[in-house]
Design goal:
Low-confidence stretches: 8-30, 430-509
Strand content: 25-35%
Protein name: Ig-like domain-containing protein
Distance between the termini: 142 Å
Shape: elongated
Mean pLDDT: 80
Number of domains: 4
Helix content: 10-25%
Organism: Coprococcus hominis (ex Liu et al. 2022)
Largest sheet: 17 strands, mixed
Structural class: alpha/beta
Keywords: Membrane, Signal, Transmembrane, Transmembrane helix
């Protein structure tokens, strides 16, 4: 029994906690609602009544808050401000603000009104607005001003002479072929940052023509599309004509700059190679897909377009439709140069003299011994150089790249007084011959050495173990002969017989005797080789 009672108490506790938590959660959800949209005085999210508009005086002092636009407009006095606290929408078919001047501060929010009627001036600022605005005070100086506003208008009927003024605002008015919609204004003023776009207005721009053409829409002539014009008829109306001369029913009024996102500017080609002539690429400009005409819509001015580097063309708008300017850059590359030709050299007369030279050069060239470090040439001849390889090229300049290098060889004069005369080089990057006699001598020497090597290889004989003893016998005999020769050679004139001294034998006779001994040794050696060969057989 006790267990049942305890279970009942616990279950009741859980139920109470859940009920409290649920109620508290709902309260928190309602309190956390940000009222993203207030429609006809109630939040579309939580359905609570919300005061979404504050009425302030001209100094910004609050005078009261209201949940509906029509209530706030009726309560406001002349010169007061209607300030949005939340995004606000009124579905009332008609809101009458009366005969007073008002400001609607959108406060970076959005206001939707089906029909807002006022008989004084109206300023709408700092946010988004949509709906129909009307002022029927014909002949009065009241003005409708949009400042920092993005607006979608279903209709606009501003009969007062003060007209419409746009400041940094973008207004679109979509009529979509309705049977009757108004686009009525006596005057229109725009700054260069604003856009006013009308689509499918059945009657086009209409008014009473209370002002002259210049007073009414003369200030927007520079905002007209290409081909559109202003038309004024005294005591009738001032309006806009399209390209066909018909009253414009669709028009986008904007200050068209050549720097707008809708502009495409291209040039071709975008690079050239320097040749000393001015370079002027073809310029193509389109605005909203429309090709502009040079001379009519714009002019071109070319700068720095002869020498290598960055050139530019400035495209400047011409006429009343397009404005400003834009710049496109292109490049002129340096031109290549051919390597120097016709260079001549003079040999160095002796090692260390440094009196070799390279002629037929000029100050536009430079030379190097390793093609890494280059020295400028300051005259028509490079003097004071040693024998060796040199490279000569044209220097890089503002308009030309450095040329390829021509290899030039300055040689050493041969010891027997070979030529040191000038020799002409023949081709680029090819070693130039400066001494034909020296080259011939080198080739002859090389040939002799080759032949000597060949003869030596033929005469050389490889010994074997079978003939080693016999070879050693022959060698011993040869050594004895050599020893005898050495002893004979070491005798002085004092040791020589008197009859040899008297006969006047000279050093040359000694040389002949040594030569004979050497011949005997060679003969003995050859005889030994013959004996060995016979024994092998």
């Amino acid at each position: 029994m006790r267990k049942r009672i305890l279970g009942t108490i616990i279950a009741a506790g859980f139920f109470a906690v859940a009920a409290f938590a649920g109620a508290n959660g709902l309260a928190e959800t309602q309190a956390a609602c940000e009222h993203s949209q207030v429609k006809d005085g109630a939040c579309v999210d939580c359905n609570d009544p919300v005061e979404c508009i504050e009425v302030e005086d001209a100094s910004g002092t609050a005078k009261g808050t209201y949940s509906k636009l029509e209530d706030a407009a009726a309560a406001a006095g002349n010169g007061d401000i209607l300030k949005l606290l939340y995004n606000c929408e009124s579905t009332s078919t008609y809101i009458d603000a009366g005969n007073k001047n008002l400001t609607i501060d959108l406060n970076k929010k959005e206001l939707k009104a089906v029909h807002f009627d006022i008989m004084g001036s109206l300023v709408i600022e700092n946010g988004e607005y949509s709906g129909y605005i009307r002022n029927a005070a014909t002949g009065n100086e009241h003005t409708l001003t949009f400042e920092n506003v993005r607006a979608d208008l279903t209709q606009l009927g501003w009969y007062a002479k003060g007209g419409i003024k746009l400041v940094n605002s973008n207004i679109e008015q979509q009529h979509d072929g309705a049977a009757f919609t108004e686009w009525w204004l006596e005057k229109l003023q725009m700054d260069q940052t604003s856009v006013y776009k009308i689509t499918n207005s059945p009657s086009g721009l209409s008014n009473y023509g209370l002002l002259s053409l210049d007073e009414a829409v003369g200030g927007i002539e520079e905002f007209l599309p290409a081909g559109y014009t202003l038309d004024g008829q005294p005591n009738s109306y001032n309006t806009i004509l399209d390209e066909t001369g018909t009253k414009a029913r669709s028009v986008e009024l904007r200050y068209r700059r050549l720097t707008d996102a809708t502009v495409s500017v291209s040039i071709a080609p975008t690079s050239y190679v320097y040749d000393g002539k001015a370079k002027e690429p073809t310029v193509t400009v389109t605005y909203d897909g429309r090709d502009l005409t040079e001379g009519t819509d714009y002019t071109c001015t070319f700068t720095d377009n002869i020498n290598a580097g960055t050139a530019s063309v400035k495209i400047t708008a011409k006429g009343k439709t397009y404005h400003g300017e834009t710049v496109k850059n292109y490049t002129i590359d340096k031109a290549p140069q051919t390597a120097p030709t016709g260079l001549t050299t003079k040999n160095e007369s002796a090692k260390g003299k440094k009196d070799g030279s390279i002629k037929n050069v000029d100050v536009s060239m430079e030379y190097s011994v390793d093609q890494n470090v280059w020295k400028p040439i300051t005259a028509n001849t490079i003097t004071g150089i040693s024998a060796g390889d040199y490279y000569v090229r044209y220097k890089e300049t503002a308009n030309y790249y450095a040329s390829g290098a021509t290899k030039v060889t300055v040689k050493m004069s041969v010891p027997d007084g070979g030529t040191t005369e000038d020799v002409t080089t023949e081709s680029v990057t090819t070693e130039a011959s400066t001494d034909a006699t020296t080259e011939d001598t080198t080739e002859a020497t090389t040939t002799t050495e080759d032949r000597t090597d060949d003869t030596t290889e033929d005469v050389t004989t490889e010994s074997t173990d079978d003939t080693q003893d016999e070879t050693e016998d022959v060698t011993t005999e040869s050594e004895e002969v050599v020893s005898t020769e050495d002893q004979t050679t070491e005798k002085t004139d004092a040791d020589k017989p008197d009859d040899q001294k008297n006969t006047g034998v000279k050093t040359g006779d000694d040389f002949a005797m040594k030569t004979a001994v050497a011949g005997m040794i060679i003969s003995l050696g050859l005889a030994g080789i013959v004996v060995i060969n016979k024994r092998r057989k």
